[in-house]
Amino acid sequence: MKNKRSFAWVLSIVLIMTLVLSACGGGNNNNNGNASPSASPSTSADPSASADPSASPSAAPEDQTPVELNFISWKDTYNPLYDLFHKKYPWITIKQTPVNSQPIMEIIAALEAAGTPADVTEIDQDLIAFQQNGLVEELTPYIDSDPTMQSVTLPNGFFDTMAIGGKKYAVPMVDVPMWILVNKDLLAKNGLEMPPNDWTYDDFREYAKKMTNPDAGEYGLTTQPEWQMRLLSTKAVADGHADNLWYMNADLTQSRMAEPDVINDIKWLSEFVTKDGSMLNNTKASEQGGLVNEFINGKTGFAIGGDWVLPKLKSDAKFEWDVLPFPKGKVKQPGYTIYGPLALLAGSKHKKEAFLWLSFQFTKEAQMWKIDQGANASIVDGDIDAYYQKTPMWQGKNFEAVQIAKKNAMIMPGVMIPGWSEYDANGIGNRLITGDEPDFSEIAPAIEKWNKRTLELRAALK
């Protein structure tokens, strides 16, 4: 009840603001938003070239009155995918409402207040909060009767991070894999061969040292938050110090970030800055004009990348680059992937049509288009698996690394964890790795507080 009252309060505030703005005659139709780091820019000269849209089943309602769906999304590069969807369902068009760093719940409330409710949204915090506020539609009945969803094979446990009490409330919009990007020119300049796909974390550190040449303004690692955000907790799993990404335990109820072995993992990465000098902290990186903050500038050897960086690298990089899987640890070689939740909004006036956008994500044409952008497939299908070797995205690149990353990927947790938005592992990591005065004593009290908080929230849900 508290969550529902909170959303009602947000809605009432937005209503008041809307009335005030209307009275003042104000307005802002600027839809140019910045993409989220987890969004994946996409390019496609011919969006219909990947597959024949007629190859996938479709649920075509008898009523084909023209409908415009309002889609809340970080993406500003999905137009080719919208075109594929429109080709399949000519009476349905999609209008994107950009996030622009605004909390999505506030956007939903504002659109409701204006009488123009959104139909579909990406999720920016734990899915439980959206479900508890009554914002998202339960999808199980739609999935059970949809020809497309019933015709595809999904990986085991596919909906585990999208279901509450056995009911499905979202589908993954995209499976975003992560790799380590490699500047092959910088390797060659320092007399180094391309690392093997079974390289270790010790190898990773040594390569980074050997590619560091401060006099030339060259460093082993790009100064970016992704190292602690993606690689560090993956290393903790690889070495057996955590059970899941982001230092979570086996049942995702508690963080293990404050345990001694994990703290030592964090100190290990901090030494790239404080001891090895193979990565600069934020302040020193800024002092050098920010060149080492972007891998595409060619001044760094390694970076963490996902599908969102690939099109720009392919078109603009002035050096040879490739990809590697995350290194092997003492126990295993896990990778890292993100499922971006896509939900049907309870306030939609076009729910049948809106669900077609959700189910369309699992058609062969949509899956192939996403592979063309560097994303992973979300369905189990021989044709789709074979398409990985045909896509222009990976021609001439370390395709085996792409396969390893897909096979070994662990899914970033969060959408089903109560209080996830209050978990400051990312902020702590940024301060400890690339901050000016890292203080490792802040870990224990912060994690103890959050572990208590998430258990309280979990208990309140029962």
Averaged pLDDT, please? 88
- CATH-defined superfamily of the largest domain: Periplasmic binding protein-like II
Q: What is the CATH class name of the largest domain?
A: Alpha Beta
What's the quaternary structure here?
A: single chain
Number of helices: 18
Question: Which residues form runs of ≥5 with pLDDT under 50?
Answer: 1-6, 9-54
Report the span from N to C terminus.
13 Å
Overall, the morphology is globular
CATH topology type of the largest domain: D-Maltodextrin-Binding Protein, domain 2
Subcellular location: Cell envelope
Biased composition (Low complexity): 32-61
InterPro entries: Bact_solute-bd_prot1, SBP
Region (Disordered): 32-63
The gist of it:
The protein is α/β, with parallel strands linked by helices and 462 residues long.
